[in-house]
Each structure stands twice: as structure tokens, then as C-alpha cells.
Design a protein that fits this description.
259 residues, alpha/beta, Rossmann fold, four-stranded mixed beta sheet, three-stranded antiparallel beta sheet, S-adenosyl-L-methionine, transferase
């Protein structure tokens, strides 16, 4: 591996921009999912007061969430609490309390990649579920092209301990070992990576960074590595070609965990 290659997570602004390009080029949209969930809860239980605690280590994401809340109507029955901390920091803080808060619903959306001890995290948050409560986990599907990409090229790309290669296949094995019951659903999602095959395309370069978790991958990766990945990404097992576009399989898994 070329020494000039470095993890995308070493450059926060580059990571944020590549993530934005990922969202704009994919059928996955995370920004409003919290409020969509809360809207469904309010419709199911009209007039009930809801406490919504947000655990998020990124100040930028918390600000974005608050701005979205400010623009959204009919949230008067919802009390928001914001915690700028990781799930591990939240867990440590909660464990210092004499009595743990129980919750009717917990969701972990695209966040388990950033947890060092996933089984311990699952076990802890499962313990916070009230009777008949549910926990929703969303992450990339084991049937997606992410798993194929990580499995084949992960050892040749710069790693960072901030992020793990984990899919729903890994997660269900962990839940089975913990003896936790769950239901499993897959949702087809794609990402338009057509610009990755245009030399010097800014959008394509940022998508390359996101796909490989490598900062400035297009200019720092060994030519043979880039050529090999580029060839694979155009194969049917990684992407489909439709209307002149190359659509990467970005399928997601929704895992509903029972108390």
C-alpha cells in the first residue's frame, strides 16, 4: 500500500463533504428520519408527551438536527434533550446513576460502524428497553456491495480505529450469540457512482473517498489498486447499469430488536 494513502477520518472536513456527496447520490436519506419516526409516534399516540434524547458526538449534526426541529411544526408535545457524546460515553454516564432510565423505543441508525465493542453496546442498550419496547438498528446489508468491497480490499486500504467494517450479517450473528430476539428486513438502496469513472470529476473523487474511506483516493492510491477496484465496481455483483448510470448496491438492513 502506498505510504501516501491515509484514512478519510484523518480529515474531518473532507469526510463530511464526501458523506454529503454520498447522500446526494444515493437513495438513502438520514437527515429527517428521526422526525419521521416521531411523527409516526404522535399519530399513533395523539396527545401523549414524548421525551426524545439524542446522543450524537458531532456538534455539526446536532446543530443540523436542531435547525430541522425549529422548522418543523406540531412538535409541541415532544421534549428534546441533546447529548454531545459517543454511545460509549453515554453508557459510562448512565452506569454512574443509581437507576437506569428505561425507554419505549431506541434506534441506532448507521452508527454501529463507529463503536469499538458492538456486542457490549447491543447488550447495554437492550437492557434499557422497557417492557414491550423495541430497538431499531439500521446498517448496510450483508447482501450489499459494501461487504464484497470491504472483504476484498479492506486489507489494502488505510484503516482507522474510528470505523469498523460491519454489516447486518455480522450483527445478526452477534444478536444470536447474545440470545436477543429480532426481526430482519432488507431495503434496496443504490448509489449513483457514474462520476467515479470520469477523470478529474470532483463529485467522483469525493465518492471514491467515501467508498474506500481513503482521503484523496484518486490521487494517492496505487494505479493498479484503483484500476482493479474500478473494474470490479462495474461488475454485476457490485453494481447495475441503468439509463447510462452505474448504480452501486447500497442496500440496507432494518433489524427490529425485542425487549
Amino acid at each position: 500500500m502506498a505510504s501516501s494513502m491515509r484514512s478519510l477520518f484523518t480529515d474531518h472536513s473532507r469526510y463530511v463533504e464526501s458523506f454529503r456527496r454520498f447522500l446526494s447520490n444515493s437513495t438513502e436519506h438520514q437527515c429527517e428520519i428521526d422526525l419521521q419516526i416521531l411523527s409516526k409516534v404522535q399519530a399513533q399516540y395523539p396527545g401523549v408527551h414524548v421525551i426524545n434524547e439524542v446522543v450524537e458526538p458531532s456538534a455539526e449534526q446536532i446543530t443540523k438536527y436542531k435547525e430541522l426541529v425549529a422548522k418543523t411544526s406540531n412538535l409541541e408535545n415532544i421534549k428534546f434533550a441533546w447529548h454531545k457524546e459517543t454511545s460509549s460515553e453515554y453508557q459510562n454516564r448512565m452506569m454512574e446513576q443509581k437507576e437506569l432510565q428505561r425507554w419505549d423505543f431506541i434506534h441506532m441508525i448507521q452508527m454501529l460502524y463507529y463503536v469499538k465493542d458492538i456486542p457490549a453496546t447491543l447488550k447495554f442498550f437492550h437492557s434499557l428497553l422497557a417492557t414491550n419496547a423495541k430497538m431499531l438498528i439500521i446498517l448496510v446489508s450483508g447482501a450489499s456491495s459494501w461487504q464484497k468491497l470491504w472483504k476484498k480490499y479492506g486489507s489494502r486500504l488505510p484503516r482507522n480505529d474510528l470505523c469498523q467494517y460491519v454489516t447486518s450479517s455480522d450483527l445478526t450473528q452477534m444478536l444470536d450469540k447474545l440470545g436477543i430476539k429480532y426481526e430482519y428486513y432488507d431495503l434496496l438502496s443504490t448509489m449513483d457512482i457514474s462520476d467515479c469513472f470520469i477523470d478529474g470529476n470532483e463529485n467522483g473523487d469525493l465518492l471514491w473517498d467515501f467508498l474506500t474511506e481513503t482521503c484523496n483516493f484518486s490521487t494517492t492510491a496505487p494505479p493498479d489498486l484503483k484500476a482493479e477496484i474500478m473494474k470490479d465496481l462495474q461488475k454485476p455483483e457490485f453494481s447495475i447499469k441503468k439509463d447510462g448510470k452505474v448504480l452501486f448496491n447500497n442496500s440496507l438492513s432494518f433489524i427490529v430488536v425485542e425487549a
